[in-house]
Design goal:
The protein is built from 9 helices and 40 strands. By secondary structure, it is mainly β. The strands form 6 sheets. It has a 26-stranded antiparallel barrel. The chain has a 3-stranded mixed β-sheet with strand order 6-13-14, with no helix packed on it. A hairpin with a 4-residue loop joins β2 and β3. α3 runs antiparallel to α4.
């Protein structure tokens, strides 16, 4: 019965659309409309219904071997139900006035509407509405009420029940007793597991972007072009966020549905003028302004602690313990910050001019101001925090420290100058010279925080002496690029080119002060015969830094020389080299050939290669090598005008060699504390398709299939020669999609009796899509993990990541085009 309703709805929609094309709708019975003599009306309306042939699991949990549709719906809304798409156009027959209206997937979360109107050569107006979903999960498990709001609370009494069932006893003004073990013992774990299971509910996790756009263009003369645009994008929904209630890695932690509710407004105006320069050549100048304002509906949200006794005050919730080594207490609520309001304003000018000697200049100047000055939220909503010494941090409590400023006063200004000159030296030779300068000037004050609060519970100075004092860092840089290219076309068969590029970064508050990179490149195109075309290119670049000194930044950031002189847990090893600053040699090559083997059959092999070698010495850490290899082949065969085939295969491999350590600060590297791993990602993609006009101009059929196989591995090795055990298992994935479609076009004479002047057609479409991922890291996830992973007795999870689905979708529609 449900399927009949879907198709009945589609038929009703088509009947309504057809009514607009009947003679009665176009003119009255007594006299023809004046508009009918000079207006043309066109359109295409399609309506139908779709449903699942199977019953794919929507909200299953991966650890239970179930499927979910979260990944299936990730960026689109193709739920079962009726659907409508359409395009309507009307305008004068001389083309002077024109109006277009588009509508896609009406009534669903990814629907789109657009209206454009114009008077040719003078006015152009556009209005749009677009909804774009981003679904993360349809199977998230949560204990919290108030999903989507800024107040996440638990069912009445649940926090107290979990607190007691975990074995905790409240002590006024102190951490609780009786629950110092991060892994709960049998009876306590069973009780907590029961409490959590009985209070879970399933929720979708995702956001939707609702975007309204308006733009207007005016061309009063052939020399002037003025454009104004505005857009308003509202994001709303939820995302997953981890909330750490306790200091340390084994206290109370909860994954929660973070609220998203923000608006971004973009607006701009620009004007362009084209004229003749004094030297008799054309030039174009363009001036523009663009602005952006971001506003979040809230500055923070609060989350209730899942392990907290009734009446507990700050620092009296789980987990228990009274010393720095075994204590990990928490407070009743956590305050979580959201994105701050900010804005940007940019001004641009562009000049394009034809020059003597067959040359052309293109230049751009741009200046942008970015500002963020929303008031800081407090360190904590708790009235008091623990402030004892590092050995006995929970011996006393006091008021939390004050912030060093009321707001960030964030200011970043950017300046861009881009210049390109091209010259046709001779009919065979063409040159290009370019220079680009970009200044990222961060004027944000670098604030000093004498002390701060760790997880709403205790002072940073009570946690570790190395945690305070701390400065914020304002990173700035300038980037310069210069280049020269020469293109030579000696004949119609050959095209060759060479080029040189230079890039220089000057950094402030980065581990390296300066990097310089030189690049050489060459390419060749060869088409000796009409049935053969080849293209090859190669480039090599070498980047070097002047001075690399991560210690200087650490001394400033942590306002102390202690971290530079000893093993400090607030900074990574000083032997670490960051890949975007480190010395690097890059080689990159690409090759392709297109061969018409026989009439209608084209074979196109392709190959791409890139390798980055980083100069990591025996006493340094970081990324030592990155390699990407891509090879594939495509076969396209037009058997005849009615039948075409397409087959393709692509193999992609990415490999990264990483060297890392288990120590921090200036601690010495030894074979026992140094490791390396080879991260290898492989993707094989197979595609095939056929288009067949079974009955020319009557019956068209399409069939396509795609399969992608992926595998990611990362074996680890110790520099001492031993291999750590156990190793991380490989992550494997398989994605498949089969689509078949048939379109039948009815005889025009047959549909004319229904008042339809255009073309009517029917479509039948079937899609099978399956995704299967074997991921050790996610496949074990449950709402409560105490029995699976140690030291997680006071943690709750949403078990939201389940990319596995298997869906069979069929749809049918009727359409009219006129």
């Amino acid at each position: 019965m449900k399927r009949r309703v879907l198709f009945s709805t589609a038929a009703a929609a088509l009947t309504a659309a057809a009514a607009y094309m009947t003679p009665a709708a176009a003119q009255s019975a007594e006299t023809a409309s004046v508009a009918d003599t000079w207006w043309a009306f066109h359109g295409n309306v399609e309506a139908g219904g779709r449903f699942f042939l199977n019953n794919p699991g929507k909200d299953g949990v991966a650890s239970q071997g179930q499927t979910s549709l979260g990944k299936y719906y990730e960026y689109s809304d193709i739920r079962p139900g009726p659907f409508t798409d359409g395009w309507l156009n009307f305008g004068t027959k001389d083309g002077l006035w024109n109006v277009d209206f588009w509508a896609d997937n009406v009534g669903y979360n990814d629907q789109r509407f657009e209206v454009n109107g114009s008077k040719a050569g003078e006015y152009y107006v556009g209005v749009g509405w677009d909804q774009t979903p981003h679904i993360y999960s349809t199977n998230a498990q949560t204990l919290y009420n108030g999903v989507g709001t800024t107040t996440l609370t638990l069912p009445a009494g649940l926090s107290n029940t979990l607190f007691k069932d975990a074995g905790c006893t409240r002590v006024a003004g102190k951490p609780p007793t009786g629950c110092t073990n991060a892994t709960l013992p049998g009876a306590n774990a069973t009780a907590v597991q029961r409490d959590i299971t009985n209070n879970l509910h399933t929720t979708d996790i995702g956001i939707r972007r609702d975007t309204a756009t308006v733009d207007f263009r005016w061309t009063p003369t052939t020399a002037w072009d003025i454009h104004v645009d505005y857009s308003n994008m509202h994001r709303w929904g939820t995302q997953v966020e981890g909330v750490v209630f306790s200091p340390g890695a084994t206290g109370v932690t909860a994954q929660v549905p973070k609220p998203v509710d923000d608006t971004t407004q973009n607006f701009g105006i620009n004007g362009e003028y084209q004229g003749t320069a004094p030297w008799g050549k054309l030039f174009t100048v363009k001036l523009g302004y663009a602005g952006s304002v971001y506003q979040d509906a809230s500055s923070s949200y609060s989350v209730e602690n899942p392990f907290c006794g009734t009446g507990s005050g700050p620092g009296e919730c789980a987990r228990g313990g009274t010393t720095a080594s075994n204590g990990s207490p928490s407070s009743p609520f956590a305050t979580m910050g959201l994105w701050p309001d900010n804005q940007a304003h940019g001004f641009t000018s562009t000049l394009g001019a034809d020059l003597p000697a067959k040359s052309r200049y293109m230049g751009t100047l741009a200046y942008t101001m970015m500002r963020q000055n929303e008031s800081f939220i407090p360190f904590t909503s708790a009235a008091t925090v623990y402030n004892g010494g590092t050995a006995t941090p929970y011996a006393s409590m006091g008021a939390p420290p004050t912030l060093p400023a009321s707001s960030l006063n964030g200011q970043i200004n950017t300046f861009l100058s881009n210049n390109v000159v091209t010259t046709q030296i001779t009919p065979e030779f063409k040159s290009k010279f370019s220079y680009r300068y970009y200044d990222f000037d961060n004027q944000t004050p670098e604030l000093l925080f004498p002390d701060w609060v760790v997880t709403d519970t205790k002072l940073a100075s009570s946690t570790s002496a190395s945690y305070t004092k701390v400065h914020s860092l304002s990173v700035s840089y300038t980037k310069q690029n210069g280049g020269a290219d020469l293109d030579w076309r000696p004949s119609r068969e050959w095209n060759l080119g060479v080029g040189y590029g230079y890039e220089r970064y000057n950094w402030t508050r980065a581990d390296a002060d300066v990097t310089n990179e030189h690049t050489g490149k060459a390419f060749v195109d060869w088409k000796p015969w009409i049935w053969l075309a080849t293209r090859a290119s190669w480039s090599y670049s070498d980047r070097m830094y002047d001075n690399y000194n991560s210690t200087a930044n650490s001394i400033f950031q942590w306002a102390s020389t202690t971290c530079a002189a000893a093993n400090c847990n607030t900074i990574s090893s000083t032997a670490m080299r960051q890949f975007y600053l480190d010395n690097r040699a890059r080689s990159k090559g690409q090759f392709s050939v297109a061969i018409d083997v026989i009439r209608g059959l084209t074979v196109t092999p392709t190959f791409g290669y890139q390798v980055d070698d980083y100069s990591i010495s025996a006493t340094e850490l970081g990324l030592s090598r990155s390699q990407a290899v891509r090879a594939g082949i495509e076969l396209a065969y037009a058997v005849n005008p009615s039948t075409t085939f397409l087959l393709s295969y692509m193999n992609e491999q990415y490999q990264q060699n990483l060297k890392y350590t288990s120590v921090t600060g200036t601690a010495a590297l030894t074979p026992a504390n140094t490791f390396h791993t080879d991260v290898i990602d492989r993707v094989n993609t197979f595609m095939g398709g056929v288009n067949w006009r079974a009955i020319p101009d009557k019956l068209d059929m399409k069939l396509s299939y795609t399969m992608s196989l992926s595998k990611s591995s990362g074996p680890q090795y110790s520099d001492s020669g031993a291999q750590p055990s156990p190793q991380y298992p490989d992550i494997k994935g398989q994605w498949q999609r089969l689509e078949a479609q048939a379109k039948y076009t009815f005889d025009k004479d047959a549909v004319r009796v229904f008042g339809i002047k255009g073309t009517a057609y029917a479509k039948l479409r079937y899609v099978w899509e399956r995704n299967s991922v074997d991921n050790f890291d996610q496949d074990i996830m449950q709402a409560y993990m105490n029995s699976v992973v140690g030291s997680t007795g006071f943690m709750t999870w949403m078990a939201y990541d389940n990319p596995n689905y298997n869906a069979h979708l069929i749809g049918a529609s009727l359409g009219v085009k006129w």
